[in-house]
């Protein structure tokens, strides 16, 4: 349903057998309301957000409830920087600095809902103390 589907509706039907005639039902009022986004969750491929250095990671954002249109934005470590838009964020050739907490924010233009953070771990990160790879 869309917000524009709100209105008054009735239906007509053929009634009777001997003295058949068209009958119209009583008018019914239908009101469609906006549902703010909620139940935002994240998933990762590979699972649990653990990705090898140099590989790719795909994060997906899902919304349990909400009427659209919905917009998505991706954020890292609580920074205000926008990483991407859309329900998926693809990180190619992940590096040492890509580990951390990622969040997805969903907005319907009036309300905003945010996912819990997803911890991404890049396996095989350089050990800053050793200057090389683990």
TrEMBL record:
Its protein name is FCRL2 protein
InterPro entries, sorted: Ig-like_dom, Ig-like_dom_sf, Ig-like_fold, Ig_sub, Ig_sub2
Q: Cross-referenced SMART domains, in alphabetical order?
A: IG, IGc2
Indicate the segments forming the Ig-like domain, all copies. Answer: 37-121
UniProt cross-references to PROSITE patterns, sorted A to Z: IG_LIKE (PS50835)
Q: Domain of life here?
A: Eukaryota
Lineage of producing organism: Eukaryota, Metazoa, Chordata, Craniata, Vertebrata
Per the UniProt record, which residue ranges are transmembrane? none
Q: Which organism is it from?
A: Emberiza fucata
Gene designation per UniProt: Fcrl2_6
